[in-house]
Protein: Transmembrane protein
Amino acid sequence: MLRWIGSAPLTYAWLTVLLGTTILQHQLTGRVLHTLLVHESTNLQQLAKDPLHVLFASLLWIDGKYWTPYVVLFTLFLAPAERWLGQIRWLTVGLTAHIVATYISEGVLYQEIEHHLAPERLVHARDIGVSYFLLGVMGVLTYHIAAPWRWGYVAALVALFGVMLIIKPDFTAIGHFSAIVIGTCFEPLARCRDGPTVNPATIRAKPGRSGARDRPR
Structure:
């Protein structure tokens, strides 16, 4: 377990920080918590006032009450990506997706407010969380999966978040879909990495082959 955690230090350090801020969320009252999270959000007002602060601070909070689902998501996607890409490339992909998807989604929201298609109160909307970073990394993981499985993986991502975008085309859904697209644009960076790709067929075949060797002749 310690070896697994040590092989992806940024992933699990971040997860530890999120545990601390989640505990803090549970200690604060509703009004105080709301004020804090709005202040740390990448909404239009805060992006105009202090973009560097909120782009970083928004990554330190989860958008919800429960921390445990993030343990699963970080372990399934962020940790393998950190091991495969290395820390600098991992940060490059995740932060690019986080920043660019934020500005795309908030830019669309700004235009909607300007044209009276969205209420002006959304200038102060709560917009925190790790999802854009996570989805950007999930996008680039496409190239760590062997063909033809990678096409099924990316098709599932696009279909899931594309349907969510169609059903509820708000700024969050736009940001999620954008983050996936941004992650898949990092193919040149992914090609620089050595090592075998993940092949689900080979993983499934291993128990069968082992079992064949154990059978008496």
